[in-house]
Amino acid sequence: MGHQDPTIAHATWCCLFLIWLTNSALGHRDTALQPHGEYWRLRGGRPARSYPHLQGDVRRRRLYSSTHYFLRIGRDGKVDGTHRIECPDNIVEIRSVRPGIVAIRSVHSGFYLAMNRRGKLFGTKAYAPSCNFEERIEENGYNTYASLLWRHEGRPMFLSLNSKGIPQKGPKTRRQRLSTHFLPMLVS
Fold this sequence. Notes:
This protein has helices at 6-25, 37-43; strands at 58-65, 70-73, 79-82, 91-98, 101-106, 112-115, 121-124, 132-137, 143-152, 155-158, 182-186. It is α+β, with helices and mostly antiparallel strands. It has one domain: Trefoil (Acidic Fibroblast Growth Factor, subunit A) (Trefoil), CATH 2.80.10.50.
């Protein structure tokens, strides 16, 4: 009664492994990691799979715009650009939320970069879905950051600093414009 045929035991383990493998391949995800499910329903798409082993990846950088400004999130939550490399407000943590999606937080002020539905950039102390940006490496080696939550007439709205270091509103931004291109520079 206590003895089991080794062939049956092996077959049982194989079946359990296949069930586990199938669940992994289907991308069963924790819905708590998808804070804005309504967003996906409205876009008509399905949420990306969750990869918990990639979450929490944090890079400390200075985001240097191709318009020659460092992104700064001030102690009052104001977002703008500065030429000063030694400014503490321009050091940010780029935290991976899931593959290709990041949240950007100022190390010094503690504010997260966020975008509202009109495409205005602002800082917020509380992490929210409006803080998620799609990070993409462009052909020229610069990165672009598009709001994951908000779009304007179906087009993405990007993080952008104009030639005076002033954030541009999302509807006026385009992926091809240099004002949306940033180099994540290592913090020494």
